[in-house]
Amino acid sequence: MKRFAIAALLIACSTVASLAQGNGITIKGKIEGIKKGRLYLIARTGEEKSDTLGFCDFKRGKFTLKAAASEPVAAQLMVEGFSGGFMLFAEPGTTYSACLSESESFFIKGGNLNDSYTRHMKTSDSLRAAISELQERYDALRSGRKLRSASLVNDTLKHEQAKLRELTNSFLGSNDNVIAAYTVYSNILMRDAGLKESRRMYSALGEGAKKSQYGRIIKERIDRMAKTDQGAKAPDFTLPDANGNKVTMSSVKGKIKIIDFWASWCGPCRLNNPALRKLYDEYHDKGLEIIGVSLDTNKAAWEKAIAKDGLVWVNVSSLKGWACETIRLYSVTGVPSLFILDEYNNIIATGLRGEQLKAFLEENLK
To answer: 189 to each of 198, 199, 206, 332, 340, how far by Cα in Å?
Structure first.
């Protein structure tokens, strides 16, 4: 991925706030390929919040950026008008030198944390490249049915993978700080880890890492996801139906209530709708109610899908797609996504479909 990609950089979403109060950080250097503009140093302070630690205007590609932070942070150097950026671990009271470039000349030097992380990544990246090459050789030998040679390559592959794991674990074990928390958070996002796995990965961090910038962000994620865990009180919300009438979730009565997050453009959702309609017809008189929350942005497409699929239950949508606050409230990362509530709006099950959902309704709506 290009570090410099022409796009609108949402600097307006960042505010000079809490992190920008503390000891000075100075970054001096040059930017290759861009003669003038504005450079920002931005750090995340929450899952959806960032602060600007400092900024400067640069000419002829040279810059001196002065910023401030009250603690070591993982931050990004970003040029206004360009997406992407250059990550560094910025420590209060530290001076850095940098060459921001797409080429091999790129570097950011300075600070114990940043230099340590750079050295580690250089070594681990070399190991990953070797592992990737060995994997390709192994796959080619397997495809050519050269099983003896493939077995020998596989032994070497496993050895290099074990070496990478040992290297990573040793490095993270010696960094009970923002480096470990940043790495764990990156892995959580890459895996789209659920609540249980996120808690497990967070609990493995040391106290220093937990108290750091990204330790707090992981905790924020866990607390958010816990709000829609089984046994929790379902977060209430109010959204408009197709006629513009506001519907509040808690006001919809039912012995069992299903909140179905879906969209007209979602193939699996549309395939699931007939089964959901059949269950509704069978159990509605026994106390089943459904609230369909659509991720659509096109009202006509949403209404057409409701009519075509015969969704006769309550249907609401902000028509903001993934920007809908209710989606965030329920930690929905994919559709269809179902939450099953009791009559008191407690979440009693999630993710049930097909025969599992039918059996659950049968048991609970006797």
So the answer is: 10, 13, 20, 14, 26
Structure tokens at 265: 């453009």
Phi, psi of 81 (to 5 degrees): 95, -5
For tokens 């979602």, what's the residue?
Answer: 266
| pLDDT value of residue 5 | 41
Q: What is the pLDDT of residue 145?
A: 93
Supply the DSSP string of 81-148, one letter for each residue.
Answer: TEE--EEEEE-TTEEEEEEE-SSTT-EEE-SHHHHHHHHHHHHHHHHHHHHHHHHHHHHHHHHTT-HH
Closest of 275, 280, 289 to residue 354, by C-alpha: 275
Identify any residues that bridge with 66 across adjacent strands, giving them in sequence order: 26
**CA–CA distance, 31 with 129 (Å, rounded to integer):** 28
20, 121, 125, 164 from 129: Cα distances, Å: 38, 12, 6, 11
Q: How far apart are CA 179 and CA 89, in angstroms?
A: 8
Q: What is the pLDDT of residues 185-206, one digit of tens each?
A: 999 999 989 899 999 999 999 9
Residue 317 makes CB contacts below 8 A (sequence gap 6+) with 239, 240, 242, 293, 294, 295, 296, 299, 302, 324
Phi, psi of 176 (to 5 degrees): -85, 70
Residues of the chain with pLDDT under 50: 1-20
What does the pLDDT look like over 298-324, one tens digit per residue? 999 999 999 999 999 999 999 999 999
**234 closest CA partner among 255, 220, 250:** 250
Which DSSP category does 49 fall into?
Answer: E
CA–CA separation, 179 vs 87, rounded Å?
12
> So what's the pLDDT on residue 23?
78
Q: Is the pTM of the predicted complex or chain greater than 0.85? A: no
Domains of the chain by start residue, with CATH: 5-109 (2.60.40), 114-226 (no CATH), 238-364 (3.40.30.10)
